[in-house]
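User: Hi! I have a protein structure encoded as tokens and I'd like to know what sequence might fold into it. I'm fairly new to this, so please keep things simple.
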């Protein structure tokens, strides 16, 4: 069985400080998520909050809300781009209620992002992320998954919000980006309502014009040439 997942990146990160993990758990619990550790933390406070070891290198947890179960695994940076965490839901669980569970997964991902403060994260079907990962770049937008979370640091490195947003002239999109940047230190770009949905042909063409050369999430087996024909019909 495959998963839908968010992968978080922070190159050269070799361990997690206790405060990072405690902060992440606190943010999740505050938003109504139950957190159950696969490997219990070193100890807990009188209030039941976990106490982590200094320089924690690996942690796993099950996150639940509304009867839905997500899996979180965090570790020292792996691979050339520095993957530090995965947050996932099974295909079957997501498809039980696509809209609701997509929202649940995305909200949890943004909370984990705020807690762990990675450079970048993206979410999609795990096979899709495997396909896109070789094109991921932190010097330009080289690939886009279904959902893409840019940190404030990466957004500034790429030239600011106007260089990141798909529709930089849309006031609603600008306003939302500034809100999430202020509250969560991230800018979110999504290409379709859910990772289970294909990217619309019009969106594919917009991405092609906005991010030249970028590889985007598959949308069925449509090529850009076929997308242009659909849009022009």
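Assistant: Happy to help. Inverse folding works backwards from shape to sequence: for each of the 233 positions I chose a residue that suits the local structure. Here it is:
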């Amino acid at each position: 069985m495959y998963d839908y997942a968010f992968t978080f990146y922070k190159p050269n990160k070799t361990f997690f400080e206790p405060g990072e993990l405690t902060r992440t758990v606190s943010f999740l619990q505050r938003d109504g998520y139950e957190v159950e550790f696969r490997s219990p933390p070193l100890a807990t406070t009188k209030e039941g909050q976990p106490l982590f070891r200094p320089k924690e290198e690996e942690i796993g947890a099950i996150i639940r809300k509304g009867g839905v179960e997500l899996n979180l695994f965090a570790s020292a940076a792996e691979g050339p781009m520095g993957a530090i965490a995965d947050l996932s839901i099974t295909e079957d669980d997501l498809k039980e209620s696509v809209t609701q569970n997509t929202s649940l997964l995305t909200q949890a991902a943004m909370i984990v992002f705020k807690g762990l403060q990675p450079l970048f994260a993206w979410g999609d079907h795990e096979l899709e992320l495997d396909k896109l990962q070789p094109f991921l770049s932190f010097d330009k937008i080289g690939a886009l998954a279904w959902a893409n979370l840019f940190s404030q640091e990466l957004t500034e490195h790429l030239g600011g919000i106007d260089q990141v947003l798909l529709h930089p002239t849309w006031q609603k999109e600008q306003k939302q980006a500034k809100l999430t940047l202020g509250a969560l230190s991230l800018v979110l770009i999504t290409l379709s309502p859910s990772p289970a949905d294909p990217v619309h042909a019009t969106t594919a063409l917009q991405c092609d014009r906005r991010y030249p050369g970028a590889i985007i999430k598959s949308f069925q087996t449509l090529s850009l040439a076929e997308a242009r024909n659909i849009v022009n019909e």
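A useful reference point when you look it over: The chain is about 40% helix and 25% strand. Feel free to ask if any position seems puzzling.
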